[in-house]
Each structure stands twice: as structure tokens, then as C-alpha cells.
Design goal:
about 350 residues, mainly beta, Methylamine Dehydrogenase, Chain H, 5-stranded mixed beta sheet, 4-stranded antiparallel beta sheet
Amino acid sequence: MIFTTSCTTQNRQSRSTPSEHTETVAPQTKTTSYGEQDKVTSAILDKTGNLWFGTSHEGIYRYDGTSFTNFTEQDGLCDNAINCIEEDEAGNLWFGTKAGLCKYDGKLFTSIPIPWDGEDNLREEDWWSPNKIQCMLKDRNGNLWIGTGGCGAYRYDGKTFTNFSFTNDRKQADSLHHNFIQSMMEDKDGNIWFTSLTHGGVSRYDGINLRHFSANDGLKDDMVFSSFQDRAGDLWFGSIQTKHEGLYRYDGKSFIGYSKEDGLCDNFVTGFYEDRTGNLWIRTGSTLCIYDGKTFMPFKTQEGKGLKDINFIVEDAAQNIWLGGRYGHLWKYDGKILTDFTEKNI
């Protein structure tokens, strides 16, 4: 079976620094061949210490530290294509799927319809899907924010959906805005940040007003994939338009760009994780990259192996780091040993 995200990344402390890699455990023998689109997409550590992994085709896997349990549409899961996972204060799990929002209370899966007001039927050639959930965020007030693949973002308070659509992005072939929100983040001041893949750049909502950031603020790219705030308070954004900088740091005043010319491993940046020493782990298209505040360097095992196409980084209750991505890849890293969990009998 496949064990392959953020959308949700847990920002907990890791046990080691990148210089402590020592060895890699050989992958287990496979009985199934997975392709590029067979992904472990997302992960979360729940309040009870279980890890949950979302996949592109095989639903959800729960790992209790000993064994994996698979949940699919046959068990009531709303859809087997999972993009992101969140947990609310009551311990309910929320899954962002290709077909919409799904809630799991520990016993039952419940589909929560998104009140989309657009066309009833999409054309076959349309790439956008307003019901497809790309990312989720639980804010400090308990609201669930939902980023869609075609209808902007929604704030859900448990009863009512409030839509946030943006007109600063590029109109599509039908002359309408189809906001594709790839990531969201709440900063230390309670502002909600949105990143757009429909050339909308970065937007910030302070609870009253929306502000859009552009090239005038130092943001050269308007297709922004990822967002993150480190413990020092700096905001980080990853772009996928490789002709400019792939990484941006926002210090509250302006955006500062980093590219391969600055040592960045790749200008295609899809996500972040911060370890206990303050190192920033940067997911890029070509390799996992580490930034210590001065220098960028690729993650390497003792054998010189790097990791690429990583969709998420999450930490378990024992402070092991888990990483997953394409071709069904799932690894556990304890600070010394990188263990391959890509396929394991249940």
C-alpha cells in the first residue's frame, strides 16, 4: 500500500541538526509499482499522538506508532484524493479532498457541502474546480479556513461559510476570476495570508481589510505556492515561477528575494519546516534544502542521498521527522537514520 500534502505541516521541534545524518535504511521490497502521481500529499499529528497521512488515490492512513490503518470511500470517506488535513479543538479531523470538505469525528465521516455560487457545470477543458480543497487552516478563534482550486477561500465557523474572492489575480479563458489558493497562514498578529497560483501573488486579511502585495513591494513573482512564519517572526513565501527568485522573506516592510544565485537549491519552492535549532527546511522541486540563516545546503544522508519531490514535513510525538511525496514515498528520520516506509504490509 502507498504511504505518501501541506497542506498541513506541524511546526514542532526536531531532534537533530542537518549535520547529524548518518545512514539510510534500504527501502523495503515493493510489490506494487507507483507512478509520479501516486503521492503522499499531507500529514498531521493529532492530539492523541496518531499520525494521519493523506494520499492522492488511497484515502487516509492512520499510524499509531506500530501499525497503519487505511480509510477509504468504502469506510465512508468522502473522496480518496486527499490534499490537506486539519484538526479542530474538539479533536475532529477535517480532510480537504478533491470533491470537497470531509469531517471525521472518530466514528463517522460527514461531507460538508461548500456553498459555491458559480456555474453548475464545468467544461471538460476547465482546469479549475471550486469544490477541490487545496489547503486548510484553523485560526486562533477556532475558525476553519478553506482554500479552493477555483473559488478563492472560505472561512467556516461551524455553521456559516464566508467567501473571500480576489480580483487582483488574472482572469481566465471565460473572463472570470477563478482564484486558486494554494496555501494559507495565520501570523503572530492574527492576520490571515493567502497565496495564489492564478497570478494573484500574496494577500493579507487583517480581519477587516484585504491588502494585496505586488512587485512594488519587492515580490517579483505572482504565482506563489507556499507560506510560513518562523519563530523569529519572519514570513517566508515560495514561488514556482523559476525565472525570478524562488524564495521570499517578508520582514514586515518589504520582500527580500533569494534565488539559485544566492545559493538556494532550486527556484521552485513548495513548502517549509523549522527545526529546534532554527534551521529552515525548504521543499524545492529538485531537492530538500536547509537554510541556517546564512547558507543554503541540500539535505544529504551519509551516502550522499538527497530527497526530492517532498509534499510535507511533519513531526511525530517522539520528535521523529516524517517526509512524503511522489511515487508513494514516505520516510521517517530520527536525526540519524532515514527509514523508508514507502510500502509496508499492514
